[in-house]
Amino acid sequence: MTTKTIGIIGGGQLGRMLAMAAARLNFETVILEPQAGCPAAQVANRQIIAAYDDPEGLAELAAVCDVVTYEFENVPVEAAENLARVVAVYPPPRALEMAQDRLTEKRFLNDCGIPTARFHAIDSQVDLEAALVDFGGQGVLKTRRLGYDGKGQRVFRSNGDSAVGGYAALGSVPLILESFIPFEREISIIAARGLDGTVACYDAAENVHRAGILHTSTLPARLSPVADLAASRAAKKLLTALDYVGVIGIEFFALSDGSLIVNEMAPRVHNSGHWTEAACIISQFEQHIRAVAGLPLGNPARHSDCVMQNLIGDDILSVPQWLKRDNVLVHLYGKTEARAGRKMGHVTELLQPSGEGYAGKKPG
Ligand code: AMP
Questions:
Q1: Residues in the ligand 1 pocket, defined by CB under 6 Å
Q2: Where are the domains of the chain?
Q3: Among residues 8, 117, 150, 308, which one has the fewest Cβ atoms lying within 10 Å of its Cβ?
Q4: What DSSP string runs through 148-162?
Q5: Sign, Cα dihedral of 177, 182, 187, 189
């Protein structure tokens, strides 16, 4: 069957950008999201207003779509599995399962031969204290599930940091203690796998976070050719192991010895890949739509160096200034209320052409 209509579970900015990319290739999109008038529904053909695990809403989505994808990794796995019995769901629900729990994720990555921080499962205060002793008093304590943008975390920096009450402070839920990684920088790779098994990797981005939220992604990342190759090899291993279809975002810590370890993966388009819409012919959003619709993947080559900056909360007030600048792509998400910490939009500034083929085509 030829894909005509793509269902997207989740109605945030990622769903919005997927719907926009889909429209350009003549696909229709239906958003399943409980919040009416969400960013994605503003640009899609239709919204089904229902919870992500609502059986009726999901049945309706399956009935009107040829393929269903999602824009966030906390789609209930059971709902995705049930849906996959009646309509193609990409990326495969197993990818959700691996990404939703930091413990499962790290074990899976290590099974694939991909290094991560060392870790201990923490289910009590006693576990926490024993694990901290093992890591010399240092570590990053995280909730296993539903943590994002640095939420649900606590850092133990030295033997001076008391573990007292640490387990209860994060809600007495299943936790993981990771060894503290003295990384030099954080980088990420956006990669895609098509229905035919083809893999395409974008260049690595160098990411800076502020208050746990991505602030900038800069291209090119300062990375040795060996590390660069290691990142794309890890992406390929992961995508193949999951029999993946679609775009994935993989975050790495780059260490001073040149090695890379994976922090986490997101089975979806990723904030640190927004630069691709300005600096590549085929953005991560179009790449994902191509993959899930069974079209050939596009060339992920980058034509320019660039910096993507998130507009968080009141940063939205700087839009008039950004609009006056040359070589800046402004992308706003249709959110009316600029709450602190809320992603309102992003800008990508092209710095200079990076490829001869493209340099020749630049006007002027
Ligand atoms: P995460 O939610 O896992 O992406 O973590 C949020 C941020 O905390 C990361 O971007 C890092 O800056 C920092 N971080 C997370 N895990 C570690 C770790 N094991 N060692 C050092 N820093 C970390």
A1: 117, 140, 147, 150, 178, 180-181, 186, 209, 212, 263-264
A2: 5-89, 118-178, 185-353
A3: 150
A4: -TT-SEEEE-STTS-
A5: negative
Amino acid letter, 56: E
Model's pTM, two decimal places? 0.94
Instruction: Confirm whether 5-89 and 118-178 share one CATH topology.
Output: no
Contact predicate 201/236, CB 8 Å: yes
What is Dmax (Cα atoms) for the chain? 67
What superfamily in CATH does domain 118-178 come from? Answer: ATP-grasp fold, A domain (3.30.1490.20)
Q: CA 269 to CA 279: how far, in whole Å?
A: 16
Query: Best mutation site among 263, 264, 271, 272 for ligand 1, i.e. most ligand atoms within 8 A of its Cβ?
Result: 263
pLDDT tens for the chain, 364 residues: list them: 588 999 999 999 999 999 999 999 999 999 999 999 999 999 999 999 999 999 999 999 999 999 999 999 999 999 999 999 999 999 999 999 999 999 999 999 999 999 999 999 999 999 999 999 999 999 999 999 987 666 778 999 876 678 888 899 998 899 999 999 999 999 999 999 999 999 999 999 999 999 889 999 999 999 999 999 999 999 999 999 999 999 999 999 999 999 999 999 999 999 999 999 999 999 999 999 999 999 999 999 999 999 999 999 999 999 999 999 999 999 999 999 999 999 999 999 999 777 554 443 333 3
Q: 266 CA distance to ligand 1 centroid (A)?
A: 14
Q: Tell me how far apart the alpha carbons of residues 120 and 113 are, in angstroms, rounded to a whole number.
A: 18
Ligand 1 pocket test, candidate residues 101, 119, 134, 140, most atoms within 8 A of CB: 140
**CATH architecture assignment, domain 185-353:** 2-Layer Sandwich (3.30)
Q: Which tokens sit at 5?
A: 């209509």
- The residue written with tokens 């507009």 in the block is 311
